Amino acid sequence: MAANQSDVGFRSPLARVRGLGSAKEGGGHWLNYRLLSLAYVPLVLWFVISVMSLLGTGHAGVVLFLQNPVNAVLMLLTVGVTFHHAAYGMVEVFEDYIHVKMVRLFAIALLKGVCLVLALASGFAVLKIALGA
Amino acid sequence: MSDTQAATGPKTGRQRPLSPHLQVYRLPLPAIASITHRITGIGLTVGTLLLAWWLIAAAAGPEAYATAAGFIGSPIGWLLMAGWVWALWYHTLNGVRHLAWDAGYGLELGPVYKGGYVIWGASVGLTIATLGVAAFAI
């Protein structure tokens, strides 16, 4: 052990990182996506029922619906989880089918950027209606 | 011997037997359910554009909202909505099944096949019910 520590300076960065094992984040990432998916199920059901109840009510009906604080918060949650779930699901698809490293890198970055912008714009729209601005 | 050489020669143009792959292999139900989960997921990701449009249009005002609602109410809009409603039900139901598998339940041949039939039947049934209610409400 002592000998191992003393020769740290002579080892290549790759050898050192191999000795450290995995980044230890893969399992957490996997579990987080599952837990978020579990929470998404009731949100999706709420969303479908809400949209069905809004059919035929027009613009005024949607505004009235989102001015209810509970509906506004649930819609913000739905927007957030939807775009997170979509982004990370699509990352898995891109990782499986795009084989050129640089193309994959930029495709994933672009995807996450677009999802972030859409999520923020949608969330801002909900807040704007909810706060009556 | 000459037959073997002719068969393996690169310029003979002779059809050699292939190992099973997507074009010659009839996918079993679990494989169809799996790839459908992925395809519906991609479709629903595209559908988030409509979610964003709907919310932003509602925030922008009655005119913008009428444009979005008009598109959704058009024949193309209905067709797209039918696809997205089915994709949403399929992906949600099959997603619950995936969560059960990840938790260690039901990942045996019998339940996987049974669940596959249930998912297809239930997603189509719920889609017809959802669109039926929607058509009635409008």
Describe the structure.
- The complex is a heterodimer of chains A (133) and B (138).
- Chain A has 133 residues and is mostly helical.
- Chain A has a single domain (25-130), classed as Up-down Bundle (3 helical TM bundles of succinate and fumarate reductases), CATH 1.20.1300.
- Helix content of chain A is 83%, strand content 0%.
- Chain A is built from 6 helices and no strands.
- Chain A has helices at 2-6, 13-20, 26-54, 58-66, 69-97, 101-130.
- Chain A starts with a helix and ends with a helix.
- The model of chain A has no long low-confidence stretch (mean pLDDT 91).
- With 138 residues, chain B is an all-alpha fold.
- Chain B has one domain: Fumarate reductase/succinate dehydrogenase, transmembrane subunit (3 helical TM bundles of succinate and fumarate reductases).
- Helix content of chain B is 78%, strand content 0%.
- Chain B has helices at 2-8, 29-60, 62-73, 75-102, 109-137.
- In chain B, helix 2 (29-60) runs antiparallel to helix 3 (62-73), helix 3 crosses helix 4 and helix 4 (75-102) runs antiparallel to helix 5 (109-137).
- Chain B is extended.
- Chains A and B meet through helix 3, helix 4, helix 5 and helix 6 of A and helix 2, helix 3, helix 4 and helix 5 of B.
